[in-house]
Specification:
Layout: H1 2-7, H2 11-24, E1 30-31, H3 32-39, H4 43-55, E2 59-62, E3 65-68, H5 70-80, H6 85-100, E4 104-110, E5 113-120, E6 135-137, H7 142-148, H8 153-159, H9 175-188, E7 191-194, E8 201-210, E9 216-224, H10 230-250
Antiparallel strand pairs: 1-3, 2-3, 4-5, 4-9, 5-6, 7-8, 8-9
Helix pairs in contact: 2-4, 6-10
Domain HTH iclR-type: 10-70
Keywords: DNA-binding, Transcription, Transcription regulation
GO biological process, one term: negative regulation of DNA-templated transcription
Length: 253
Amino acid sequence: MKDKQSKYEVPAILRADLILRTLTRQSSPMSSSDLQKACELPRSTLYLLLDSLEQRRWIEKVDDGYIIGINLYSLGMAYLRQDRLQAVFRMKAQQFVEEHNEVVQLAMLDGSDVVYLGREDAKRPVRLVSDIGSRLPAHACALGKVLLAQMKDDEVRDLLPEKLEPITSRTIASRQQLLNELARVRRDGLGLDLEEVAAGLNCFAAFIGRTHLGQSVAVSTSIPTDRLDATRSQKIQHAIVQLAKDIAQGIGR
């Protein structure tokens, strides 16, 4: 199947995609010379693509570098408006935040990564890496575990290597250990991240279901360990599972 798909790839689109993906990983404007090194494209090809992307405002020039442009952002946001998911998420997540004063996140699985689609912030701060559009390795976070748990073990084996990249000392680092954890997730209906992405931060996640467009989505909350005890942890876990059910009902699932 892979060979059949690659046969029909359009080189210009592949190169434009490479440029855009490279820019999304940057926190500041990237020069054309650095882009050329990173993308390994001929200078003439690179400049033609940069000019075309800039004309469409998929990228924008800032000083001597390039950043992702406003029109690409608008196109991406259209993805979130297609099946009422965002509207239902915002309404239900606001209710969760009002009751528990903790952040809520919405995500889907893309390959071996979790992609964040939405976030509703609480009034008190928490250090997160879940900006809309950002990614995390699925094996490391609660959202990823819940989403991977919807797959068969053989599918997970095909997707992930035997050795998994750790983010902290607590991150699951072997595929078999992850499969054991996914069995628990399927049994309990709850994904856990106990300081596996960031020290001092616990995350609880639950599966929402598939949207009308067929995307599997999940919801989570992330809470510093110093704001949790056994009683509150249980309360939050029940609440995030209920939130997932409420969102599923709201989108007709």
